[in-house]
Amino acid sequence: MDLVERVSEPEPAELLQQAENQSSEQAAVTRLEAADILARRGQSQQALDVVGKLDAERLAPEARIRWALLLSELGFDHDDPWSVIRAAQVLDDDLPFSRDQRLTLRYRQGLALGMVGESRAASESLLNVQAATDSTELNDAIWKQLIRLGRPALDELGRAPDELTAGWLSLVELQRRSGSDIDRLFRQFEQWRERNSGHPAARRPPSDLMALRELRGREVRHIAIFLPESGPLENVARQIREGIQARHMQAVNDGETTPRLTFLDTSQNDLESLYAEATMIGAQVVIGPLDKEQVTKLESRDDVPLPTLALNYGNGQRNNARNLYQYGLSAEDEARQVARRAYADGHRRSAVLIPNNEWGTRVGDAFRQVWLEQGGEIGSTIRYNPQAPVASAVEPLLNVRGERAHLDGIDMLFLLALPSYARQVPPTLDYYYAGDLPIYATSHLFEGRPRPRDDHDLNDVLFVDIPWLIPDAAVGGEEALPFLSSYRGLREGNDPSLLKLAAMGVDAYELGRRLPQFQIIPGSELFGATGTLRAASDGRIHRQLPWARFIDGIPQPPLRDGLLLDGLGEGSMDGQAN
């Protein structure tokens, strides 16, 4: 009997220890081997940490390809699109890719770009792969990105397009012209299909498009809107109503099939009477109420008389009422998004600076929950008095001793503050030798219009805001904004805080007339004036907002590790400019 000596696999820990004493080139090879072993053993998080930190520039060409494929795969496994985007940058280098390797990386790049909200770049990557493979498996991913694009981005894709891209663009245009008229949409789709019989989308239509068939006969033709006409919420309601009406008139002018609108005064009637009247006049959907206590009462019920889009969030941990959706400009959503982005950027130990009031507690708790769930740590939390000097909060926050901060591993700051307070934070950090500490913030630190002289102290601060207030950072310019005509009409004479409420009205109108779609098709989303809107399983609408960074005191598209937020460095799409 022959005995075959089995070569044992080296232990990753030993390899990583060896790398500490090797030349930079050999250390990169050794760390890649350790990451590969960890991944094969199912220790994918450790593998991602190792492969993400090694110096890939030191690897030989074949090894760099291995590194990129491993990093991109692990990035997807752990919902880390930035790792995928970073890995895909090697596509610009002169490396000996096989056809399958190049297509795999390009495909992963496209999906990752979509995950970070860069739909045009994502579309280009995925169309690139489909042109090479003719695969209909890509149809759903391509459609998801294309329908998010504004007119300028579609026009850019349509400049001298190939037959594949031209077919996709004509299908998007068809869908948009149809508005909410489902019968018209599918009559025109069948005609498109006959003209483009060989196109991947004709052979296998996108599932989200075909799911709209279920909405036939369920178009919303009458909406009742519950808003107060007097009382403490009157001014807020007026701005939301202005947004609803502006978007409605624009849809009428564009030839879309639009619902009838009936406004009912919540300051004069209770909810039961309002629902009875809405039912009597034939309304199919309700938008409102706005009052938080009224929404709280609705969410504790088993159901509501008519499908309803409330314009606030209740106080409960969960919405329990069937057919009740809740939408608002939630600061908690922004805090959760900050926590996810900061963790994806590689930060692990956060300081938290929030106002000492109920608002600060709610938003701080939202950040803390998501941050801890991901594995982050809270190194320090200070609830500040907005009237007190900023230094009185920063000193204990960063353990200042002898006019020098002692960070104790803190690698980022979550900031919730209004502009006048926020502008003082970076200079105070700088004074205490902590000026390099990354700051992530909610929209509240930005007044909504460029004020470079006032905001220059906020340089390098990352924050989120609605597309309508940061068009250059959010979508590459005003022309690409969602509901552009409504935006141009509403911004005149409105200060930013009022424009934000009007934008909420625009999106409320769109959500209201699409409520049957959100009910029937899970995962539906609206690329709206206040962000990308999706419904959670309990009907609460969550917003995903674009990111901006202050540069020269003006919100601009942020950079991350040398990559534009759109995921593209120079020439990373085979020489196509974004």
From TrEMBL:
Which keywords fit this entry according to its UniProt record?
Membrane
Q: Name one Pfam family in it.
A: LppC
**Cell membrane as a keyword?**
no
Question: What protein does this entry describe?
Answer: Penicillin-binding protein activator
| Source species of the chain | Litchfieldella qijiaojingensis
